[in-house]
Prior knowledge:
The complex is a heterodimer. Chain A is of the alpha/beta class. In chain A, helix 2 packs parallel to helix 4. Chain A is 36% helix and 23% strand. In chain A, the strands form two sheets. Chain A has a six-stranded mixed beta sheet with strand order 6-7-8-3-9-10, sandwiched between helices. Chain A is built from eleven helices and ten strands. Chain A binds chain B through residues 47, 50-52, 71, 73-74, 76, 78, 80, 83-86, 88-92, 95-96, 99-100, 102-103, 105, 108-111, 135, 151, and chain B through 35-37, 150-154, 156-157, 159-170, 211, 214-217, 219-220.
Amino acid sequence: MNIAEVKNLSFSYSGQQVLKGINFKIMPGDFIALLGPNGSGKTTLIKILLGLLPSQKGKINLFDVALQKFHAWQNIGYLEQKTSTPRNMPLTAFGVVRLGLLSTKKGLKLFNKEDNKKTDAIMKKLHCFSYKDKLFSELSGGQQQRVLLARTLINEPKFLILDEPSTALDSSSREEFFEIISALNKENKTTILLVTHDISQVGKYVNKFLVLDKQIIFYGSKEDFCNSKEVTDYFGPYTQHLIDHLHTAGTCPIPHCHTENHEGELA
Amino acid sequence: MSFAEFISYGFVQRALISGILVALITAMLGVFLVLKRLSLIGDSLSHIALSGVAAGLILNVTPIFAALPIVMFSSLGILKLSKNNKIYADSALGIVSSAGIALGLIIAALAGGFNTDLMGFLFGNILTVSPAETILSVVIFLIVIACLYFFYNALIATVFDENFAKTAGVKVDKINTLLVLLSAVVVVLAVKTVGIMLVSALIIIPPTSALQIAKKFKSVLIYACAFSVFATVGGVYLSFIFNLPPSALIIILNLIILCICGLIKYGKTRKIN
């Protein structure tokens, strides 16, 4: 079973081509870093993948079901780059996290005591229980992000889509954040698609890279990334810099790569 | 006049029943509309109601019943326009609002003759609510309460974050449609209570007051309802004592409550700082 399959996807906005001829498959257990410069179409791709934007051309399947017929949203967790939450929304952190259970509800979307217990449990797990009764709008950026992550993870989704989720976090919280999602990937085999700019931070966790700039520049394993002609052609003189980033984080997957190719830079 | 004597009149009882029900539903829907930054939809729809009322008067149909389909249809138009990325939501509201007034004025000018009746709808007259309109208030109240109960969490999710709500399987488009259609129905009903010119105040002021002092969603709903009902009953009662228009007094009382809530919030913030 594929987690997601994108076939020949194209998208234009106001006459400008944003995505062109996108094809890729996401397999169970993949942890993919989606990279690309600003305006490369990363967020657009994710929004189309989730049905938040209409796909103008191409086909998308989620869990082998056409997107238009897909209803098993409890299998998908989505954490946006930034939410457009109303400033004075009278919702506590607990209330926000519990909303994550809506996708498990059929018909009337009403909560019960079991849902409250589940909410408490995930908030404890993600260390946000201590401020569960505080208004979401009064939390710091980092606390809000933690609450939103708890909301995303409350259903234990099989496929996590995270759009630059760590931008509001300080460096230690960021590290902890990646440890949490990495553990989900390793222990629960949760498939993760992570939009990021920070290749050095995620390099040690991911197993695949997807480089996008309106079209797919590269999609493959970390090993192939370091040796890819497409990557070298696209990034030009910055290729070495990128691979160095992977080295700095101690995450270059190529055996003996340090000594053979990059000894000088690392010394 | 004592309060007991005041409520012994049949027309006062009808006015209070209808007024309280309108106060409750405008406050509850208003909470969602204010948070969704769609509170001015009440203003636009009430202006559209002007054309509906004028059309009703010219066709000799009960104005509220004539206005209802027109306002509901227009509410869908506002939704469609605001979803179109080329027009901002507030611009869409402005367009529909001015179209409503223009059409209403043209119909009124063409018909002549019913300016007094039209004035009644412009500024409201809760004391002339008929038994049929009271029954309509009860029916609409029950429909709104049922919708808010059944779609409560889906509405909160949609107001909180539409993209999240969509990926949580909430039919956001249907929820938005429901919200604007309910708003349309409630606006038409409220036109009789406070009038076309003041109906949006009933949707905006009580929720805004409640948002100053309440922290939880349910508390906001309860406070908004309580403020709205207090202002409506108080407004009608004071109109008897001072011989002033009840619609204006309802709004003035709501504004006084808003000021008090604002002061309470200011006091709390100062204490914390």
